[in-house]
What does this fold into?
Amino acid sequence: MLNLRVMSIAAITPSIKEIELAAEHGGALPSFTAGAHIDVTLGNGMERSYSLLNDPAETHRYQIAVLRDADSRGGSVWMHDQLREADPIASTEPINNFALNEAGETHVLIAGGIGITPLRSMAHRLLALGANFSLHYCARDRQRAAYLSELESQLGQRLHVHLDGGDPARGIDVAALLSKRPPAAHVYVCGPAGLIRSVREAARDWPKGTVHYELFRGAEADIAPRANDHGFEIRLARADKVLAVPADTSILDVLRAHGIKIKTLCKEGVCGTCRVRLLSGQADHRDEVLTDAQREREIQVCVSRAMPGETLVLDL
It folds into this structure.
């Protein structure tokens, strides 16, 4: 864990605060790459993931932005109401489940609302590389679009703003944008689950590994247990145990009930924390983090399950 201190807090929209963090006793911080996040331990005991939005070339600070969420389970409210300048706070070192593929020739960045944060860091990096890229920023209106003026000045014609006034039908036409893939192009999207679904659907024919996505906040309705879920068994290879997973219970809850500790944060399949090595068995992957290649050898036990008739063998 890193011992950090809050250097500044600034309201950048009526509902978003930018928080600048530095090493508690000064000095350089561990480096990070564009798209990375840190898992922050809050004063109320909760842990939350926040994307780093500043230039990856900076080593003296981490910048995050926190949206005050009316449906918050306590994380964003605590960050807005309780955190103060000069407060100490702990976090993990940077973790990147949403990295740029810098070998790509063209990069299409699509941000929805507070999902702008990791893509702002990506824009810093792509500008430094002199890369060919565009950023599509979707928001309700200018007042809610964090960093919009700065991005307009920084990116010029690379920036495309889509203000829908609260009606998604008036917003970005993802299907048209991604209907033709430029040579060696990659697309990156962060924002609401609906936007991510639209991008994944529009780019379904793009080559594997060229569509990158990250949910800023879990959408429970999209990853809730399905009505036709069934029970199955998991085998713990190292413990030499077989455990039953009921239809209405997650693998994570079964493991914890048997005294097996698994680190988690979101419990919604969007943070990547509770991944476990999958040795065999066909999984029904329901997370929003793992790549296709990772899904061949890993599983997020908070949301994913076994396919019908399968037993999952886990490296536990």
Summary: The longest helix spans residues 116-129. The longest strand covers residues 2-13. Confidence is low (pLDDT under 50) at residues 217-225.
